Amino acid sequence: MLNSFDWIRLSHTGTELLATLKCLKEFIPKPDSLGPPHSAIDSPCLRCWIYPRLPDSEGIEHLYCQSCQLIIDRSHGMVYNIRRMTVIWGFVNILPRQLRDEKAFNVNIIGSYIHDKNHFLLVIDRKYLKPWTEEIIIYNGSDMRGLIQIFPTTGVSMGDMICRAMHQEANRPMDKLRVRFHSTPRKLLTPHIFDQKGILTFDISDFLSLLEMATIFRVLLKPEEQQMLHDILSIKDPLEEQFYWGRFQGNLNQKTKDMLNSWKLREWTKERIKLLYEIVDYVTLPKSN
């Protein structure tokens, strides 16, 4: 029979993952029998391949068992906001204090699951990744060590992504708390390529600094200015880039100029620039007083 983590690993999409987490908190029916063997005339549930399908009714042929049908039905109402979510998989020496004490984070948690004393899974709105990271540092400090992996809710099978995240845990010693930021499923599938470029794994304090930079970047540059800067930094001809860089800076205020000059963005690698723009999607503008 399937346990809670088996149901999570069956999630094909981000909406199914979120629906599964919600159902696990409430109730997932557990059939008391196995489905029939797969044959030309019959088969078990086409999603889990273990439990019997719901009986046909009113000329409707059901393809899934009661549990899988419940998860699929609940996932339909979550499509509209799943792209705003991000998944956090943690492998740590101690669970975050908020989870251990059964208290919610100050950040709104959309879905959660505690696998064992060292593993946890969270789904949050990606705009709250920075305050969530701050909470981890403030409330757990140097006591927590291990690896936190962050990846999107869209792309390849969510169950496969979680299993790959688990597989990568053995690649890092548990001497400090590190963060792996998988902005795309490709980073999770081929992590060694991005680790060599230094744009995948960070100490948690360095990752928070990166989120701070992205916040400042978003505050000081309007969306159209961010796009213009990206286009200029993508120019391969140095003389052409210099020309447009001068024109671009002429339209900025002094505070923004100072920020760009102190960061020395023109000396950054293309990969690091791309990472900054990816991180911008994970931060929000500070609330005005």
Mind explaining what this structure looks like?
The chain is α+β, with helices and mostly antiparallel strands. 44% of the residues lie in helices and 12% in strands. It has 13 helices and six strands. The chain has a six-stranded mixed beta sheet with strand order 2-3-1-4-5-6. Strand 2 and strand 3 (119-125) form a beta hairpin. The longest helix is centred in the last third of the chain and has 17 residues, at 204-220. It starts with a helix and ends in a 9-residue tail after the last helix. The model has no long low-confidence stretch (mean pLDDT 89).
The CATH topology of the largest domain turns out to be Alpha-Beta Plaits
Q: SSE string, helix = H, strand = E?
A: HHHEHEEHEHEHHEHHHHH
Please tell me the total number of domains. 3
Under CATH at level 1, the class of the largest domain stands as Alpha Beta
Mean pLDDT figure: 89
Query: Which overall shape is indicated by the principal axes computed on the Cα atoms?
Result: elongated
Query: What about the largest sheet?
Result: 6 strands, mixed
Note the total helix count. Answer: 13
Roughly what percent helix?
40-55%
**Helix/strand-derived class?**
alpha+beta
Uncertain segments: none
Radius of gyration: 23 Å
How are strands sequenced across the largest beta sheet? 2-3-1-4-5-6
How much of the sequence lies in strands comes to 5-15%
CATH architecture of the largest domain: 2-Layer Sandwich
Features:
single chain; 289 residues; alpha+beta; Alpha-Beta Plaits; 3 domains
